[in-house]
């Protein structure tokens, strides 16, 4: 008991109730997300027109499709969990089964929370984008987070499921559908961003040689500043991920009792980008 990660400060007999509550909470969050997207769609049609309306409708429609895919995923996951409990608990009660398999149960709860949180964050990001107060990149990141959370939920469910389970096969199909819909959100967001953001014409034909040289030097300074800032943000991202893994219980225990991070593959995202070369 002392060696078990203290990821949930609740009694084991309460784990079963926690699973049901979290799945219900996730379903409720998704239903609320669908309603909010419908309201945003109506508001967008009343307050925007032309290209802006086209972009907003395309983004919100892709978000709606993603929410529907997540809703089906959660329903299928709930059915699979019931099947797992019924086939594995024997003479024990449902609560006893969850308590006996507490690590697996905690994984389900964590995955369910992550899916619900991702759906909520996606809607909030979409709301800010439609109101022109947010960043398109937020929608893209939220879509990636939802895909990752979905994979976590499927992996947690797959551990205890029978290989030939029809519900498991359906859950895996739902997961692929969620990934596809998340990719559609990313595609529609990038396409909309290109349409909305104004592009500089980059017409330098009227500049003198001195003016061109000055502009070139100023641009090189900006490039170096942005590269330095990008490098710093990548380092920050790496540290955040380390802390995330630590809190998620992925730290190994050393022989002397100290904690060390589990070895993780080096990510290309943390590499220092090459400096821009002067042509």
TrEMBL record:
Coiled coil ranges: 207-243
GO cellular component, one term: clathrin-coated vesicle
UniProt-annotated location(s): Cytoplasm
UniProt cross-references to PROSITE patterns, sorted A to Z: I_LWEQ
Domain I/LWEQ, first and last residues per copy: 7-248
GO terms assigned for molecular function: actin filament binding; clathrin adaptor activity; clathrin light chain binding; phosphatidylinositol-3,4-bisphosphate binding; phosphatidylinositol-3,5-bisphosphate binding
Gene3D superfamilies the record matches: I/LWEQ domain
SUPFAM superfamilies reported for this sequence: I/LWEQ domain
GO term, biological process aspect, one: clathrin coat assembly
Span list, region Disordered: 252-279
Domain of life according to the entry: Eukaryota
Record keywords: Coiled coil, Cytoplasm
Name the UniProt record assigns to this protein: HIP1R protein
Organism: Anhinga rufa (African darter)
Gene that this polypeptide is encoded by: Hip1r
């Amino acid at each position: 008991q002392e060696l078990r990660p203290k990821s949930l400060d609740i009694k084991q007999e309460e784990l079963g109730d926690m699973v049901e509550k979290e799945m219900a909470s996730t379903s409720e969050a998704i239903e609320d997300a669908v309603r909010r997207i419908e309201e945003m769609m109506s508001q967008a049609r009343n307050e925007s027109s032309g290209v802006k309306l086209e972009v907003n409708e395309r983004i919100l429609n892709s978000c709606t499709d993603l929410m529907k895919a997540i809703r089906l995923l959660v329903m299928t996951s709930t059915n699979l969990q019931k099947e797992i409990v019924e086939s594995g608990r024997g003479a024990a009660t449902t609560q006893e089964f969850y308590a006996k398999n507490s690590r697996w149960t905690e994984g389900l709860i964590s995955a369910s929370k992550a899916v619900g949180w991702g759906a909520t964050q996606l809607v909030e990001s979409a709301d800010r984008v439609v109101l022109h107060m947010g960043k398109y990149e937020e929608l893209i990141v939220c879509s990636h987070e939802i895909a990752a959370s979905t994979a976590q939920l499927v992996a947690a469910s797959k551990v205890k499921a029978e290989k030939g389970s029809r519900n498991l096969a359906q859950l895996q199909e739902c997961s692929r559908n969620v990934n596809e819909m998340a990719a559609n959100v990313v595609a529609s967001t990038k396409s909309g961003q290109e349409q909305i953001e104004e592009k500089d014409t980059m017409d330098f034909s009227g500049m003198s040689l001195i003016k061109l040289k000055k502009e070139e030097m100023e641009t090189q300074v900006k490039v170096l500043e942005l590269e330095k800032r990008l490098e710093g943000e990548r380092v920050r991202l790496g540290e955040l991920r380390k802390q995330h893994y630590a809190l998620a219980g992925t730290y190994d225990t050393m022989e002397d009792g100290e904690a060390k991070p589990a070895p993780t593959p080096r990510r290309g995202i943390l590499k220092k980008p090459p400096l821009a070369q002067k042509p």
